[in-house]
Every structure is written in structure tokens, then in C-alpha cells.
Amino acid sequence: MPPWKKRITFVALALIAIPIGLASRQDELRLPAFITEHAGDAIWTALVYCCISACSPNSKVITRISLTLGFAFSVEFSQLYHAPWLDSIRDTTLGNLVLGEQFTWVDLLRYLAGAMFCGAIEIAFDKRPRQRQR
Q1: Where are the domains of the chain?
Q2: Cα(133)–Cα(130) distance, rounded to whole angstroms?
Q3: Percent of the chain, pLDDT > 90?
Q4: Residues 6+ apart with CB under 8 A from 24
């Protein structure tokens, strides 16, 4: 697939991930507790993976997974640092969605699951047989 098509695909997937991730946190939907507890962070990581992949669609999947995890882990570890200016950003809705507020070890596992899932799906789609064009 040409790089421009990959970019469009990843941008579209990122745009799809946003409402799904937000919906996963809505109590009104009465989703199972496991979903509301864990899915949001995994979907956030999928969004990061899609954004990185849109910027570098032809890089290796393992490279994009590594960059995604590096970014996600950095954000999580940044939650150990509390400065007034940073906490004021975290107090906004967007700041809280992007930066979070409290470090938890389990989030690292959720990020790992999200990144590995994205990589596995991409590899599975790349391995499927393609029809020859005439």
C-alpha cells in the first residue's frame, strides 16, 4: 500500500479511536466494569500508535510500537511530577485526557496491551493474501 494511503488509514483510525475511547469511560453506557476500567488507556495507546504510524507509515511495526510505548510510559511517569503549572494543565479536560493525573503501574500494562494489539492487527492485515491487479 502506498504511504499516502497508509497515512489516511491511520488518521481515520485515530479519529475513530477518539469517540470510542471517550465512550469507554461513560457510566451512562453501563459497560462491563472491566471495559470501563481498562479499555480507555488501551484505546488511548491505540490513538498514539495511529498518530505515530500516520507520521511514519513505512517504518517497522516494532519501531512504531516502541515509540508508542516510549511516549505512553513517559506520560505515565510524568504523573509522578507535580508542579503547579503542570497540574493546572491536568485540571483541564483535554490536559487530563492526554496527561492523566495519577501514576499507576497497571496503566503501563494497559499501554502495552494497546500497543501490542495494534501491532498484531497491522501485521495480520499485512500478511493476508492480496488480489493481483490486472
Answers
A1: 3-127
A2: 9
A3: 72
A4: 31, 35, 36, 39, 40, 43
